[in-house]
Amino acid sequence: MTVYYLSLGSNQGDSRQLLGAAVRALARLPRTHVFVVSSLYLTAPREKETQPDFLNAAVGLESACTPLGLLDLMQRIEADLGRVRSERFGPRTIDIDLVWYDGPEVAHPRLALPHPRVRARRFVLEPLAEIAPGLEFVPGLTVEQALARVAHQRVERMTCEANTKGWWLSMQHSTEVQAVAERASLSRRLRRLAEEKGAVILAHNYQRPEIQDAADFVGDSLGLARKAAASEARLILFCGVDFMAETAAILAPDRTVVMPEAKACCPMAQMVDPDDLRAFKAEHPGALVVSYVNTSAAVKAESDVCCTSANAVQVVESLPADQDIIFTPDRNLGAWVMKRTGRPMVLWEGFCPTHDLIELEDALAARREHPGAKLVVHPECRTEVSDTADAVESTSGMVRFCREDKGKEFIIGTELGMIYRLEQDVPGKRFYPVTNMAVCPNMKLTTLENAVTALEREEPVITVPEPIRLAALRAVERMVAIGR
Known about the structure:
elongated, Alpha-Beta Plaits, 6-stranded antiparallel β-sheet, 20% strand, 22 strands, 20 helices, 4-stranded parallel β-sheet, Rossmann fold, alpha/beta
């Protein structure tokens, strides 16, 4: 999400009602969250003084929209509220201006950011200073500093009564404003560090939205490992869980792979270890071991071939028909593959705790609540949940399915972070979680704070001993040769 600050003004019609309607319309925009609204200010007109005084306010919001995309939506709101563009700097029912955003400078025929005239306009700076006084409007110049230079212009804060009437949005915003500002500052710092250190930032689909926004690439575990191998970056910051960073280290042994949080492990991957797998193989002599990529490097090294949730069916179908198969570690994914292929397999009794807690009743309740939506679930879900779905897809497959399907609404059965990824990659469609309980706490251990620290210190480094790496690489390469 990108942070924006907007200036609102009106001097025609019922200005207070129009400003309130504009704020509510902004809050209803898709993938947009209004987090702060200033008080109302009575201001003298600047360029054309022979017109009524203006009411002005400032708004802070987060949005997934691009600056030009948000501009289009703002102008639609203006039109809906009766704005007619007939006289430059003349009276207007509503005026909504983008003045700053957390991104590179914009120089477009329709939009310039930061707004080039704001530093000379007290009617913009006064309300903006109320909600974001320390904001660096341009490098080396804060809003408060710019405001001090235009103190001679007439701007009057409206009375307390006028600012607390029911039509105006009353918000206790100080804590949230501070949190948003800190996130924006940390994100900029993380990107600067990545550039300075020649690093690439990879984030899994289940990561926090602010981590996804700061990343160079967002995707599934193997897709990101491939990005790591293909990248020329000397340093890889992998925002995910342990086995993912290990896979990157397997495929890119000449790079330094760093994880922001060393404790971010995958519970399912921990449900199988190499010693137990070797003992299990001894009980099933001659069986081939197919291991999900959601396993440690040491388990991959004990496996014949790896698979992803996207290609597990193809991998199993590629094996000789008379060959016994051990499938590890996810019993739910294994059961789904058995049903799709008709191949009997010996399933390891592992599972993803986040996906396994999604129950059939959750899916049925979500269908009742959203009767027009299609149910799309991950194959790590329980068999009875997969059986009732319209589509069973990996995370990358979910993006593809929802983009290509003619449906406009989808119920998503996977970790909650995937909703944000879908909203970014498939705009114009609506996504609902099958349950709000499907949150992986380990995926959420990565924060902007520990990502910045990891890049600064270039640690903790994820390494794989060379004998294990080479054995694991063979299993991964066999999977890649089969296809994805």
